Amino acid sequence: EKYLVIHGPNLNLLGTREPEVYGTVSLQEINEKLRLSADKYGVKLVILQSNSEGEIIDILHQHRDAKGIIINPAAYSHYSIAIHDAIKAINVPTVEVHLSNIYGREEFRRHSVVSPACIGQISGFGYLSYLLALEALMSSDK
Ligand code: DQA
């Protein structure tokens, strides 16, 4: 069973990027934690990172056979109708993830246009947000 994890723009710099906001754990370390967790569930993860909107949409299309998707659309969360539409189009249960609590930050981060296309959203728990999202997908019957 294949599950897809997509990390959006600037998340390749995690660990050194605004550590007071996003923590000091690198993207590679987050991916390792995700893989350990996936092994326990006995599922396969495809993990990809992209800084470009079109590429994220192509990835969603290419992996529409996935059982579930975890996506941190990063800044695209706040304005990409195209990513919202792609999630709707492929019809795969998708959980939106944010490291920071987007509702406690600047006004422009307090709204996600992607979340209505998702089964749920986890925001504010640092790298744990991703692990909780995987747990949610494993437990959800959506
Ligand atoms: C983020 C929150 C976004 O507002 C921001 O643009 C990011 C990361 C998060 O994981 O907290 O790049 O998605």
From TrEMBL:
Report if keyword Iron-sulfur is assigned. Answer: no
| Annotated Gene3D superfamilies | Dehydroquinase, class II
Q: Cite the binding residues for substrate.
A: N72, H78, D85, L99, S100, R109
Site location (Transition state stabilizer): R17
Task: Give one Pfam family, short name only.
Answer: DHquinase_II
Family, according to the entry, reads as follows: Belongs to the type-II 3-dehydroquinase family.
Protein name per UniProt: 3-dehydroquinate dehydratase
What is this protein's gene name? aroQ
